[in-house]
Amino acid sequence: METFLIQLLNALQYGLLLFLVASGLTLIFGIMGIINLAHGSFYMMGAYMAFSLTALTDNLLIAVVLGVALSALIGFLLEWALFSRLYKRDHLDQVLLTYGLILMFEEVRSMIVGDEVHGVGIPELLSASIPLNDTLSYPVYRLFISGVCIALALLMYWLIRFTRLGMMIRAGSSNREMVQALGINIDLIYRIVFGLGVTLAAFAGMLAAPVSSVYPGMGNQVLIICFVVVVIGGVGSVWGALVAAILIGLADTFGKVIVPDYAGLSVYVLMAAVLLWRPEGIFRRI
Q: Which of 55, 83, 79 is nearest to 67 (CA)?
């Protein structure tokens, strides 16, 4: 029972962290209509920010605060300089641009921090473990990650459903021209959405850095899984992304325990089953 509980907690923690990355992608993809292949690079960027800024400040909390501010600024600048020119162009242009950004981020990462594998220490306050029996325990930091992800999910729901900004975001996703005709600065709304998406992905990388290695190309696998989350949950649905991410976390974690040789297929079998049942995904758009 203790082993099952540990695997269940691991699955939920992985799923919630995956939701944090995928929610940014579903906002950008579902609301703005941008196919952002560079989204995994923002996750990698956050992990490397956690490593670099922690080395400078010797405090992960300060590093995360600085990293969040830098990520939001980078997101605003990228939307203003590049993505704002893609809204009326076809998806091929979006794919080419965002693939170019992947190459650019990898080169910048290599020049600044090199190609070595790095680690980030867990803060001393969260370094304890909760004993489950005489031999098994569960890290407090993993529970902390799950709690932060749940809090952010609730905050996003409140923002999108019950605030004026959320109303404008939902309206802009349905009819950009009509919203603009009503006098709303839709360009600013899209810039905020894109900045939020980048910040969520980078923040997920910062949270994940202490429990996983920080290494080159770490965003590539995350990107593929994030697109699976968006497809399963429904394009543009934040709650769909949450449900899909948790399902993928359960399938991946218990797949590695029960059928380790075929665990890599479990996520895609789940996606195929959901799409056969509901081709539009589990939930509708926000």
A: 55
Contact in structure between 10 and 138 (CB atoms under 8 Å): no
Kindly report the backbone phi and psi dihedral angles of residue 131, in degrees, each rounded to the nearest multiple of 5, phi listed first.
-70, 135
The DSSP line for 146-199 is HHHHHHHHHHHHHHHHHSHHHHHHHHHHH-HHHHHHTT--HHHHHHHHHHHHHH
pLDDT along the chain (286 residues), means of 10: 80 90 85 86 94 90 93 94 84 90 92 89 85 79 91 90 87 80 86 93 93 87 88 83 90 84 82 87 71
- At 267, which amino acid appears? V
CA dist 201 and 222 (Å) reads 10
Q: How far apart are CA 141 and CA 144, in angstroms?
A: 5
Task: Using alpha carbons, list the distances in angstroms from residue 58 to 51, 55, 61, 191.
Answer: 10, 5, 9, 32
Of the candidates 5, 19, 6, the residue with the CA atom closest to the CA atom of residue 242: 19
| Closest to 145 in 3D by CA, of 161, 122, 172, 179 | 122
**Token pair in block for residue 94:** 């979006």
Measured in degrees and rounded to the nearest 5, phi and psi for residue 137 equal -145, 165
At 177, list the tokens.
């021209």
Partnered with residue 131 across adjacent β-strands are 137
β-partners of residue 139 are 129
